[in-house]
Write a structure and sequence with these properties.
The complex is a heterodimer.
Chain A (H helix, E strand, L loop, with lengths): L1 H29 L2 H4 L2 H24 L6 H6 L6 H6 L5 H21 L6 H25 L23 H30 L4 H32 L10 H26 L3 H24 L12 H25 L14 H31 L9 H21 L10 H21 L9 H24 L3 H6 L2 H26 L1 E8 L3 E4 L2 E12 L3 E11 L5 E4 L2 E5 L5 E4 L1 E4 L3 E10 L6 E10 L1 H19 L2 H20 L1
Antiparallel strand pairs in A: 1-10, 2-3, 3-4, 4-5, 4-6, 6-7, 8-9, 9-10
Chain B lengths: L4 H16 L20 E4 L2 E7 L8 E6 L4 H15 L6 E6 L6 H8 L8 E2 L3 H5 L7 E5 L5 E6 L4 H14 L3
Classes of the chains: A alpha+beta, B alpha/beta.
C-alpha cells in the first residue's frame, strides 16, 4: 500500500510541477498577477508531495519490503538500518527521486527567500525550475519508478553494493546533488533574466549567493567522493580522471568561473552576456553528468544499471533544456549592453583571464572524457583516455590561473598600475620562488614539478596574507571585516593548502608491494612494519579476514593497523578495507592483497606512505567554509531588507 | 553569428550522444573472432569425476556463457537462458563457472534451474584468461568447426538475442 501512495504522490507532484512551470511563466509574459502568484504555492505543493514519495521509499527500505523491486535489488534484511536509509539513493531510480526531492527543496528555498524580488522575476525563476522538475519527475514515472513491485517478492534482497556501505558514501551523494541541482537556481535566474530582457546588475546580485552555496556543496561533494575512493578502494588513489569524476569536476570548474564572473557582473555591470552563458553552461554540464552516468555511453567504474531508453529520455530532456536555453541566449544576446569600461590591467581583466583559463580546462576535460565516444561513434575504433592525458593537459592549463589568483584580489577595479602592484607583491614573489626552489631539497630527489607546485601554493597563501595586512590596520578591525572578504580569502587559502597537498603526495608518495609471512618486517619512510598474521571476524552482514600490522616509528612509539578483506554474505562480493593511520603531515596506509598460501600465513600486502595527503581534503573544507561565509554576507540581507521596505512603501502609497 | 556558436557546438555533441546510445563502450572487439576456440578441459560442477572439454562440442554450433554465482547481471540473464533452454531450435549453452571461490554454483543452479548442458568449473579464472574474459556475463558463439564467431559482453536479453545472435546463427545454418 505504502509504495502505491508513493507513486500517487509522485503523480501529484508532477501535475503541480506542470502548473508551476506553465502558469507563472505565462503570467509573467502577459502581466497577469494572479497567474504569477501561483508560483509559490505550487512550489510548496510540489515539494510536499515529492517529500511524501521519498518518505514512502524510505519506509519500504526500512520495513524490508522486498516486493518492491528497488528494495530487493539494493537492500538486505541484515543490512544495518542507516545503510538501509542511504540505500534509497544508491540505485538509479532512488537517486533520481532524491535528485527530484533536492530540486524541489531548492525551489521552495527560492520561494521562501525571494520576498524582496519583484513578483515577475520570482514567477519566472520558479517557473523555469518547475519545468526542470517536470522533466525529472516524468523521467521517474515513465522509465525509472522506484516503486515497481514484483509478486511474489523474493525472501531476501541482494544487498546494497558493499562499496557503498561506507560513511563517505552516506554523505557524498547528497552533497554532490545539492551542488549539481543548486546550479539549477543560477540557471533559472539566467533564463528568467533572458526572458524578461532585463540583464542588469540586479540579477547578478540575486543569483550570486545561490551560486556560491551550490558551489560550496559541490566542492564538499567532490572532496568527499575523493576521500571515499582513497579509503574504500584499497589502493590509495584519490582521483582517477574517471568519466564520472570528470562529470562532477566540469560543473565545478564552470561553477568556479561563474562565481567569479558574477562578481564582475554585480560590481561593475561588465561581462553580462558571458556570465549568462556561464550560468547556462554550468547547469548544462550538471545535466551532461547525469546523462553520462546513467546512459552507459561511456564505460566507468561508477555505472548505474544501463538502459538505452533512459539514456534517450535524458538526451531528449537535455535537448529541450540546454538547446532551448542556448537558443534563447542567441536570440536575446544583442539586447545585452556592455558594462563599465576597464583597462588591460584591472581586476576585471584578471577575472576574465581566470574565466578563460577555467573554461579552457573544462574544454580539455570534456574532450578527454568524450574522446572515446567520438572515436567509437565515427567508427574509428575503441580506445580509452587515461590520467596521462589529463595530467599533461590540465596541470599546465590551470597553473597560470593559480598564479593570477594571487594577483586578482589585490588589484583595483577599472584599472591599476602594474609597477605599483609589483612593488606590493615583490616580497611574496621572492619568498614563494625561494620556497619552491628550496623546499624540495628537504626530500629525496629534486623534482621540478614539486618546486612549481609548492611555489604556486606559497604564492597564493602569501598574497592572502598581504590582502589582510593591507586591509586591516589593527586587530580590532579584523572582526568588522565583511564575511565576503573572509570567505574569498579562506577559499583561496584552501586552494593553496590543497595544491600543497596534491604536490607533496604526487611527488613524494612511496609504495611497497611485499610478500609477508607472519613475523616478517618491512621498512618504509622511517617506519618499521611487522606483519602479525590474520584472524577471522564476523560483521553484521559480512565475514572478514583481519590482518594486524604493528608499526614502529623512530623511537619507541608503536601502533597497530588492521586492514581487512571482507566477504559480504548476500552478494559474495569481496571488499578490501584498507587501514589508514592519518596524521597532519602524512598517512600510513596498509591494505591486504591476496593470500599466498592455503594456511593464510603468507599474504601479499600493499604499503603506502602518503605525505600531506590530508591537506587536500583540509583545503577543500576551507573552500567550503569560505563559500558559505561569502554566500551569507550581510550586504545581501541588508539589500534585501531595503528592497522589501521599499516595496512595502510603494504598496502602501498605491 | 557568434552568439549561435554555443548552440551549434551543443547540437554537434548531441549528435554524438545519440549515436553513442546505440554503441556499447564495454564491447572491445575480441581477437578470438575467426580463430579456433581456446581449449577448455575442466571438471564440471557437481561431479568432479566428469570433465568437460571443448572437443565434446565438435560438430555442433554452441554457446559458451561465462557466468558466476556472485554476478548480479547473470541472475537477470539467467531467466532468458532458461527460456532459451526450453526452445528446441536454440543451440546448446555451456556455462563456464568463473572464479566461484565460494563454491556456490551447484546450490544456486539446483535452486534456480540449470539452463546449461554442462558447467565446467574455473575457480582460478585460468580458462577465462585464455578466452580473454574481462567480466561476467560474456557469451561466445562457436561454430561446427570450433571457430569463435561472435562475442557478446553483458547479459543477453531477447533484444540482443534477436539482433545479434539470430542473424549469425542463420548464417551458420544452425
Amino acid at each position: 500500500m505504502i509504495p502505491e501512495i508513493g507513486t500517487f504522490a509522485l503523480i501529484c507532484s508532477l501535475l503541480l510541477a506542470l502548473i508551476q512551470g506553465v502558469l507563472p511563466l505565462a503570467g509573467a509574459q502577459c502581466g497577469r498577477l494572479a497567474w504569477m502568484a501561483v508560483a509559490r504555492p505550487a512550489a510548496w505543493g510540489q515539494f510536499s508531495f515529492t517529500l511524501v514519495a521519498y518518505g514512502c521509499l524510505v519506509y519500504a527500505f526500512l520495513s524490508n519490503d522486498f516486493t518492491v523491486i528497488n528494495v530487493a535489488s539494493n537492500s538486505y534484511s541484515e543490512l544495518p538500518a542507516f545503510y538501509r536509509i542511504t540505500a534509497t539513493w544508491g540505485s538509479h531510480e532512488g537517486s533520481l527521486l532524491f535528485w527530484a526531492l533536492i530540486l524541489a527543496g531548492w525551489t521552495v528555498a527560492v520561494a521562501a527567500f525571494s520576498r524582496a524580488l519583484p513578483l515577475e522575476m520570482v514567477a519566472r525563476v520558479l517557473g523555469v525550475m518547475g519545468l526542470i522538475s517536470v522533466g525529472f519527475l516524468s523521467l521517474l514515472l515513465l522509465t525509472s519508478s522506484p516503486f515497481l513491485r514484483q509478486f511474489p517478492g523474493p525472501a531476501e534482497g541482494s544487498d546494497l553494493n558493499p562499496l557503498l556501505q561506507d560513511w563517505g558514501m552516506i554523505v557524498h551523494p547528497p552533497m554532490l546533488y545539492m551542488g549539481y541541482v543548486g546550479f539549477a537556481v543560477a540557471f533559472a535566474f539566467a533564463v528568467a533574466a533572458l526572458l524578461s530582457g532585463r540583464l542588469d546588475a540586479a540579477w547578478a546580485r540575486w543569483s550570486r549567493p545561490w551560486t556560491t552555496v551550490a558551489w560550496a556543496f559541490l566542492t564538499f561533494g567532490v572532496a568527499l567522493g575523493s576521500w571515499w575512493a582513497y579509503r574504500e578502494l584499497g589502493w590509495g588513489g584519490w582521483w582517477f580522471w574517471d568519466p564520472v569524476e570528470n562529470a562532477s569536476f566540469m560543473p565545478w570548474l564552470a561553477g568556479t568561473a561563474l562565481m567569479h564572473s558574477l562578481a564582475v557582473a554585480e560590481k561593475r555591470g561588465a561581462f553580462k552576456a558571458w556570465t549568462v552563458l556561464l550560468a547556462l553552461l554550468t547547469f548544462s554540464l550538471s545535466l551532461l553528468g547525469t546523462f553520462l552516468v546513467r546512459s552507459g555511453v561511456l564505460s566507468s567504474v561508477h555505472a548505474f544499471a544501463v538502459d538505452p531508453e533512459r539514456g534517450a529520455y535524458i538526451l531528449g530532456f537535455m535537448v529541450v533544456v540546454v538547446g532551448g536555453s542556448l537558443a534563447l541566449f542567441a536570440w536575446r544576446a544583442p539586447r545585452m549592453i556592455a558594462g563599465g569600461a576597464f583597462t588591460w590591467f584591472s581586476r576585471e581583466s584578471l577575472l576574465l583571464a581566470n574565466n578563460v583559463v577555467l573554461m579552457a580546462s573544462v574544454a580539455a576535460v570534456l574532450l578527454g572524457t568524450l574522446y572515446p565516444l567520438f572515436i567509437d561513434a565515427l567508427g574509428l575504433g575503441k580506445l580509452s583516455v587515461g590520467p596521462p592525458y589529463f595530467n599533461a593537459v590540465f596541470v599546465p592549463l590551470i597553473t597560470p590561473a593559480l598564479f593570477l589568483m594571487g594577483v586578482g584580489p589585490l588589484v583595483r577595479w577599472k584599472g591599476d598600475s602594474l609597477p605599483d602592484v609589483t612593488v606590493r607583491l615583490r616580497w611574496a614573489l621572492g619568498v614563494s620562488v625561494a620556497t619552491g626552489l628550496l623546499l624540495p631539497l628537504t626530500h629525496e630527489g629534486y623534482k621540478p614539478w614539486a618546486a612549481l607546485g609548492l611555489a604556486v601554493s606559497m604564492w597564493i597563501a602569501l598574497t592572502v596574507v598581504i590582502a589582510f595586512r593591507e586591509r586591516v590596520k589593527s586587530l580590532r578591525q579584523l572582526a568588522s571585516l565583511p564575511r565576503a572578504f573572509w570567505g574569498m580569502h579562506l577559499a583561496h587559502l584552501g586552494l593553496a593548502v590543497g595544491v600543497a597537498g596534491i604536490t607533496m603526495v604526487v611527488n613524494y608518495e612511496q609504495e611497497l608491494d611485499v610478500r609477508m609471512n607472519v613475523g616478517d618486517q618491512a621498512q618504509m619512510a622511517g617506519y618499521t612494519l611487522t606483519f602479525m598474521g590474520v584472524e577471522q571476524v564476523e560483521g553484521p552482514n559480512f565475514r572478514a579476514t583481519r590482518g594486524s600490522v604493528v608499526v614502529k616509528e623512530d623511537g619507541d612509539k608503536q601502533f597497530v593497523l588492521r586492514p581487512e578483506k571482507r566477504i559480504y554474505d548476500a552478494s559474495g562480493s569481496v571488499m578490501t578495507e584498507a587501514a589508514v593511520r592519518p596524521s597532519a603531515f602524512s598517512d600510513l596506509y596498509v591494505s591486504l592483497g591476496e593470500p599466498l598460501n592455503a594456511e593464510l600465513t603468507t599474504w601479499a600486502v600493499r604499503l603506502y606512505y602518503k605525505p600531506f595527503v590530508n591537506w587536500l581534503w583540509l583545503g577543500a573544507l576551507l573552500m567550503v567554509v569560505g563559500g558559505f561565509l561569502a554566500a551569507f554576507d550581510r550586504r545581501y540581507r541588508v539589500a534585501a531588507r531595503e528592497r522589501a521596505a521599499a516595496g512595502a512603501a510603494a504598496a502602501q502609497g498605491a | 553569428m557568434k552568439r549561435w556558436l554555443p548552440l551549434g557546438i551543443f547540437l554537434v555533441l548531441i549528435g554524438f550522444f545519440a549515436k553513442g546510445l546505440f554503441l556499447n563502450p564495454r564491447e572491445v572487439p575480441s581477437p578470438l573472432i575467426g580463430r579456433p576456440a581456446p581449449v577448455i578441459s575442466l571438471p564440471v560442477v557437481g561431479d568432479a569425476q566428469r570433465a568437460f572439454t571443448t572437443a565434446d562440442m565438435k560438430g555442433q554450433v554452441w554457446l559458451l556463457n561465462v557466468w558466476a554465482p556472485w554476478c548480479v547481471s547473470c541472475r537477470e540473464e539467467h531467466k532468458f537462458l532458461m527460456a532459451l533452454a526450453q526452445s528446441r531450435t536454440a543451440p546448446p549453452v555451456v556455462g563456464l563457472n568463473w572464479k566461484d571461490r565460494n563454491r556456490d554454483a551447484e546450490r544456486l543452479l539446483a535452486f534456480t534451474g540449470n539452463p546449461y548442458v554442462a558447467v565446467p568449473d574455473d575457480p582460478s579464472g585460468r580458462a577465462g584468461i585464455d578466452w580473454g574474459v574481462t567480466g561476467t556475463p560474456e557469451t561466445f558463439l562457436i561454430d561446427r568447426d570450433g571457430i569463435v564467431r561472435l562475442k557478446h559482453v553483458g547479459p543477453i536479453d531477447p533484444v540482443v538475442w534477436q539482433s545479434k545472435f539470430v542473424p549469425k546463427l542463420k548464417a551458420l545454418g544452425a
